[in-house]
Design goal:
The protein has 641 residues and is of the alpha+beta class. Helix content is 36%, strand content 27%. The chain folds into five domains: 177 residues, Rossmann fold (3-Layer(aba) Sandwich), CATH 3.40.50; 80 residues, Beta Barrel (Elongation Factor Tu (Ef-tu), domain 3); 136 residues, Elongation Factor Tu (Ef-tu), domain 3, CATH 2.40.30; 80 residues, Arc Repressor Mutant, subunit A, CATH 1.10.10; 122 residues, Winged helix-like DNA-binding domain superfamily/Winged helix DNA-binding domain (Arc Repressor Mutant, subunit A), CATH 1.10.10.10. The strands form eight sheets. Strands 2-3-1-4-5-6 form a six-stranded mixed sheet, sandwiched between helices. It binds guanosine-5'-triphosphate (GTP) and magnesium ion (MG).
Length: 641
């Protein structure tokens, strides 16, 4: 397969008419102003694209943006998909409003790599060039682009272009290793075309992994599967793209169903969400306007990837947490769900009067609700932020930090990851429950497994936000763990404290066994007289009943549990074949009418049998069970082909 390494994408930035598009044309020979209106008016309106083939075969991609102050939204579409910046300042004009504004936005997005070009040096004096050069250097110092080199160029006579190419190439070399790995390809759509006879084509900057022809990607939001019919990189059909400017021809989806801002991805961490836990950093102010941080519950516009959406910054008491570096925690409540993943960078702007308020990074795309919100402490938030900002990203660290802040995370498989402190509390609860029984009731220290699991599940749901099914699964796991490491001993479907065996009064244990022996028959004696004969105290009988070791259907009538189960199974087996009469059941079990009537009534009541004139037939509950068994046990040759 013939694939190139991922290319670094540079985004232009700078004031209107400062020569961004002209510089790209001089560097690459490509006119990024492709719209007729752009060519007519000599200005960039929407994002444009160009690329530069270096002498060593590497390719640099460029996203060109408009400098017009009213088109800052389009500037942010471009800036949302770049790895590095090409900041352009005209030598005649010097830094102007959108120079400041674009630098603020790049800073908010955390763009640290790039080059600045002072253009139009052919039109001014050398002194002017060196003044503007110094001004630009000083400006960059105040932003994340603090170490970007400043190069003086002329797109008219070509002065400085070789040096600019060299610097761009150096930046690309430094940035490229960051692009190599990822959890799966991801392309934020910036353009959509309907191509006659071929369907929908989308373009964007691919990141995070390779995408091949024939791959199926998820379209987010919507979670629709979309097959990649064809991959193009800079207009050439290829087997796969590893990253950089990429176009996909998509099968079985109409262009009308696609738009800028949607994401195509194989990365499972990209989800549709409208509620995000984020770390915000106040925007740097380079222009004259002084801007305050977004106030709590202030309406703002959030720009993320090629998407933008209205949002509210929520900073409730739980989120009132200061992180390091002047960052603060907040919840962004978006107007609608957008595609987002932990680690995504974004810009928060105030629509009117227009201002950049903050930059930020997404920490959690499904922040805790309910009791788990209590877990959001400064330590945990900072640990999560550090794990997400770390380069290269260690998914295991991020995952551990998320489990820590939520307390419990349900995996796609249905299993539950518990934070260490939650697991410990749950384990201690199980152990204490069993030990408590040994203390308060030494004669009968065993606790049914089901009782312990239920108690642990309840405890878990008081500690962390978990659906019941997940809490049950987690509780099962916790009890298994304490059994496994010997802190609780399991006997069949009962558990007991490891220390109690010797503590049980032997006399009581013998009495219990004797009573169970007496009840291990289809026709047990009266319970009261049997207990007396066995020497079994009343509280031991109650315990046998709650622990389901006996089945008590009347005050004075009980069977040993497994004996009763056998009798019930016989009834159901017979009823499955033909309506079951009390007489036939009595004969089959060697019982008497008094006993079988009690059992049949019990089975009727539980829906396992239904009484008809002809006899008892399988009830709704039993039919459901038989049905399940029949499906799962159906032999393969009888499966419809
Ligand atoms: N003399 C001279 N003129 C230049 C140079 N670079 C650009 N220009 C002129 O400056 C004008 C604006 O150039 P563009 O490249 O369209 O500027 P831009 O930054 O892309 O503008 P927007 O896309 O609208 O933000 C054009 O008339 C160019 O010919 C240069 O190096 N020297
Ligand atoms: Mg332009």
């Amino acid at each position: 397969m013939n694939v190139d390494p991922p290319s670094v994408v540079f985004g232009t930035a700078g004031h209107i008419d400062h020569g961004k598009t002209t510089l790209l044309r001089a560097l690459t020979g490509i006119d990024a102003d492709r719209l007729p209106e752009e060519r007519r008016r000599g200005m960039t309106i929407d994002v444009g694209y160009a690329h530069l083939m270096l002498s060593d075969g590497r390719v640099l991609d460029f996203v060109d943006v408009p400098g017009h102050d009213r088109l800052v939204g389009n500037m942010l579409v471009g800036a949302g998909e770049i790895d590095a910046a090409l900041v352009v300042v005209a030598a005649d004009d010097g830094p102007r409003a959108q120079t400041f504004e674009h630098l603020e936005l790049l800073d908010a997005l955390g763009i640290r790599d790039g080059v600045a070009a002072v253009t139009k040096v052919d039109a001014v004096s050398p002194q002017r060039v060196s003044d503007v050069h110094a001004e630009v250097t000083a400006l960059l110092r105040r932003t994340t682009l603090t170490s970007a080199p400043v190069i003086s160029v002329s797109s008219v006579d070509g002065a400085g272009l070789d040096e600019l190419r060299t610097r761009l190439s150096e930046v690309a070399e430094r940035v490229a290793p960051r692009l190599a790995s990822g959890a799966g390809g991801r392309l934020a759509i910036d353009r959509v075309f309907a191509v006659r006879g071929r369907g929908a084509v989308v373009t964007g900057s691919l990141r995070g992994g390779m995408v091949r022809t024939g791959d199926v990607l998820r379209l987010v939001p919507g979670d629709r599967d979309v097959r990649i019919r064809e991959v193009q990189v800079r207009g050439v059909t290829v087997d796969a793209s590893t990253g950089g400017r990429t176009a996909f021809n998509l099968a079985s989806i109409a262009a009308a169903d696609l738009h800028r801002g949607l994401v195509l991805t194989a990365d499972p961490s990209v989800v549709a969400s409208s509620r995000l836990l984020v770390a915000l950093r106040p925007a740097v102010t380079l222009g004259s306007s002084v801007v305050s941080e977004p106030a709590a519950d202030e309406s703002v516009r959030v720009h993320i990837g090629t998407e933008s959406v209205d949002a509210i910054v929520v900073r409730g008491p739980r989120e009132a947490i200061e992180l390091g570096d002047g960052q603060t925690l907040a919840i962004l409540r978006l107007d609608r769900p957008i595609a987002v993943a932990p680690g995504d960078r974004f810009v928060v702007r105030r629509p009117s009067p227009a201002a950049t308020l903050a930059g930020g990074i997404v920490l959690d795309t499904a922040p805790p609700r309910g009791v788990s919100r209590r877990r959001l402490t400064e330590t945990r938030a900072e640990r999560l932020r550090a794990a997400i900002a770390r380069e290269p990203r260690e998914p295991a660290l991020v995952d551990a930090a998320l489990v820590e802040t939520h307390g419990a995370v349900v995996r796609p498989s249905g299993s539950v990851a518990l934070a260490p402190d939650v697991r410990q509390t749950a384990e201690e609860h199980a152990i204490e429950l069993v030990a408590g029984r040994a203390r308060t009731d030494p004669d009968s220290p065993a606790v049914p497994l089901a009782t312990v699991r239920t108690a642990v599940a309840q405890r878990l749901r008081r500690l962390v936000t978990l659906p019941q099914v997940a809490a049950d699964a987690a509780a099962r796991d916790v009890v298994d763990a304490v059994v496994h490491d010997g802190r609780v001993v399991r006997d069949g479907d009962q558990v007991r404290d490891p220390s109690v065996e010797s503590v049980v009064a032997p006399a009581t244990a013998t009495a219990i066994e004797r009573l169970l022996g007496l009840l291990r028959t289809p026709t047990p004696p009266g319970l009261e007289s049997a207990a007396r004969a066995a020497g079994c105290p009343p509280d031991a009988i109650r315990r046998l009943e709650t622990d389901r070791r006996i089945v008590r259907l009347e005050d004075d009538l009980a069977w040993e549990a497994s004996t009763y189960r056998d009798l019930a199974r016989t009834a159901l087996d017979m009823a499955a074949r033909a309506p079951l009469t009390p007489a036939a059941y009595r004969d089959a079990t060697g019982s008497s009418r008094r006993y079988v009537m009690v059992i049949l009534e019990d089975l009727d009541r539980r829906g396992l049998l239904t009484r008809t004139d002809a006899g008892h037939v399988l009830g709704p509950k039993a039919r459901a069970r038989v049905g399940q068994r029949a499906t799962s046990e159906q032999p393969a040759e009888r499966m419809p082909s």
